[in-house]
Amino acid sequence: MLHEVPSKLDIVTTHERIRPYINRTPVLSSDKINEICGAEVFFKCENLQKIGAFKARGGINAALSLEKDEVKNGVCTHSSGNHAQAVALAAKMLGVKAYIVMPNNAPKPKVNGVIGLGAELIFCEPTLEARENGVKEIIEKTGAKFIHPFDNYDVIAGQATASKELLEEYPDLDAILAPVGGGGLLSGTGLSAKYFCKKAKVYAGEPEGAADAVLSFKSGKVEKAPYIKTIADGLLTNLSEKTLGIIKDTVTDILLVNDDEIMAALKLVFENLKIIIEPSCAVPLAALIKNKELFKNQQVGIILSGGNVDLSKLSFT
Question: Which of 7, 85, 107, 272 is most buried per CB count within 10 Å?
């Protein structure tokens, strides 16, 4: 179990640990999207990862990093969906019980995914306080081990392996873009760029309707968003001290986009890459398109974070 910012060796070791249990996801590109962006764009398709999201990497690594004695009473977490499924999958692999606290407005595919993996599901109000209180009650009642969605260095090291794989295939990237919610993926991406690439700058895409990370990035302390209203349901969480510390050190900038821009990017991926992604996943592409002068004629990697979308809630009209 890691107690400090993951080193290069930590991320290499993590990758070896989780390699048998994850998919090495493909990297796709599209001439049409390249033309629109004025750049060569390479999409790391974590929507095709186990449980349909990059979160499998961090959740599995965190669970495998625990001692047998620590997980004998099971594992627990709170999550709007993708980390919930990751922890449920890891628990199933280890043969232990998983207790998952989810907000009562979580997308149906994510809820069904957790149930399908055999976890015990506890719904709560869609607030961080309710989620944390739910986990506290579970720990008191069962003794389950808590695996935080992002404020956990083993989780961050796991998420870093997505960019590590991307850079193994495309070592000359000029930039990598990732979405930012709690910052686990972004901080992991920042570390991989720092350790495994000579020149790639890291940028985040963030929804205007959940713009806490951009404020935290500027002030240097964990901030809350002025308001929460966005279709990108996976990006509603604040950064943590751990993720902010890494992001300050490894990320160049955080770029804001609105819901219309997110939906336009989502549609572009559906039409040109022929894959399903969730709105949170489209945020970095939306940021690239909005700021294309910043990336003109560059090689740009984008982490497509997940594909667990409730299609009934999407409208392209």
Answer: 85
- The verdict on 203 and 245 lying in the same domain is yes
Does a structural domain hold residue 154? no
Cα separation values, 74 from 18, 92, 149, 165, 166, Å: 19, 10, 16, 31, 33
Task: For 23-75, write each residue's pLDDT tens digit.
Answer: 999 999 999 999 999 999 999 999 999 999 999 999 999 999 999 999 999 99
Chain centroid to Cα 26, Å, comes to 17
| Structural domain ending residue among the three candidates 93, 114, 146 | 146
Domain with 268, as residue range(s), is: 8-53+159-313
Amino acid making up residue 2: L
By the 10 Å C-beta count (0-12 exposed, 13-18 middle, 19+ buried), 132 is classed as middle
- pLDDT of 284 over the 90 cut: yes
Shared domain check, 43 and 96? no
What is the domain-level CATH number for residue 125?
3.40.50.1100
Q: Which residues are catalytic?
A: 55, 80
CB neighbour list of residue 55: distance below 8 Å, 6 or more residues apart: 82, 83, 85, 86, 149, 159, 306
Shared-domain flag, residues 44 and 188: yes
Answering whether pTM is above 0.85, one says yes
Residue 317 pLDDT exceeds 50: no
Q: Would you say residue 152 lies in a domain?
A: no
Whole-angstrom Cα distance, residue 117 to residue 98?
Answer: 9
The pLDDT tens digits for 185-226 are 999 999 999 999 989 999 999 999 999 999 999 999 999 999
Burial category of 225 from C-beta neighbours within 10 Å (exposed 0-12, middle 13-18, buried 19 and up): buried
Backbone angles phi, psi at 254, to 5 degrees: -120, 125
